[in-house]
Write a structure and sequence with these properties.
Elements (H helix, E strand, L loop, with lengths): L1 H8 L4 H10 L1 E10 L4 H4 L14 H13 L7 E4 L3 H13 L9 E2 L16 H10 L15 H23 L10 H8 L15 E6 L1 H14 L10 H4 L8 E9 L6 E12 L4 H6 L1
Parallel strand pairs: 1-4, 2-3, 2-4
Antiparallel strand pairs: 1-5, 5-6
Helix pairs in contact: 4-5, 7-9
Length: 285
């Protein structure tokens, strides 16, 4: 690969070569999905990382519904937390996909749920009581042996580096990039609630299946730290709402090349915590 790059630049001026990485932009979509329901979810028990439970029957049905909803999107890369509730959800989504059935997934430990230490396996109410006793809000409290929110955010930042590198590798086999404003214009012209919202003009798409607390930290980092723009009318408070099982969020990210690696140059939130695909399941219950 290095030899190919050297050959590509042969005969060009140093100024042309040095400027090119800064001028090349690449835009792709990132679709985040929370895993389906488990028995622990239904019984309001904390799982974290130490309790690795499979999907319940309802959780499998939710995964099927999410898979049908996303079936026509050609995902180039699929990443999932290596905890079985996320792996099973990702497998169901990929199996239902028209273009990606049989695709090999990347099982990524960086996508695991937030660790809740001594609170894992216990009722969520216990975590609230522990937080109250410590004089903190439940969302900010870290139980003994658990991960802080900053530690979870650091894991997500590490994952973004992995994601950016792999998506740039995918870029070469997926045709030319769309203009940076193409997907934004498409959403302005055709608002609504469609599975392909925000995807018009894009040729590369990533699917990530993870967990509720992790996704909340990830969304907050994208919006607050990386200055991701929000959909019209959406408030910050809405982004911190709990993500339902198989809730879907989507971001459009633009990378620029630099000699130190890919750099995020623009980010836009298309939607968060969407659960349209669950309406029929809810009605049947």
């Amino acid at each position: 690969m290095t030899q190919g790059a050297t050959s590509y630049h042969r005969g060009r001026t140093n100024r042309e070569v040095s400027r090119e990485p800064l001028l090349r932009m690449f835009t792709f979509s990132l679709t985040l999905v929370r895993h389906g329901e488990t028995r622990y979810n239904r019984e309001k028990l904390l799982q974290g990382q130490g309790v690795d439970t499979p999907l319940s029957e309802t959780g499998a049905q939710q995964g099927e519904a999410a898979g049908r909803y996303l079936k026509d999107i050609t995902f180039n890369r699929v990443f999932a937390s290596n905890l079985q509730r996320a792996v099973q959800t990702a497998e169901i989504i990929v199996r239902n996909n028209t273009h990606c059935s049989g695709m090999e997934m990347v099982l990524e430990p960086l996508l695991r749920e937030r660790g809740f230490g001594v609170a894992e396996g216990r009722p969520k109410e216990d975590l609230k009581n522990m937080a109250n006793a410590a004089g903190q809000s439940c969302g900010d409290y870290t139980p003994p042996g658990g991960e802080t929110l900053d530690q979870v955010k650091l894991r997500f930042k590490k994952f973004l580096k992995v994601l950016f590198k792999q998506m740039l590798e995918e870029r070469g086999s997926s045709g030319p990039d769309a203009p940076a404003g193409a997907s934004a214009a498409a959403s302005a012209i055709a608002p609504g609630s469609s599975a392909d919202d925000g995807l018009r003009g894009l040729s590369v798409h990533a699917l990530v299946v993870s967990h509720g607390a992790y996704i909340r930290v990830a969304v907050r980092h994208l919006v607050e730290d990386l200055k991701c723009s929000l959909p019209p009318g959406v408030k910050m408070s809405q982004l911190s709402a709990p993500c339902p099982n198989t809730g879907i969020s989507r971001f459009v990210l633009t990378l620029s090349r630099s000699e130190s690696g890919p750099v995020l140059s623009a980010a836009r939130c298309v939607f968060t915590n969407r659960k349209d695909h669950l309406e029929n399941l809810t009605a049947a219950e």
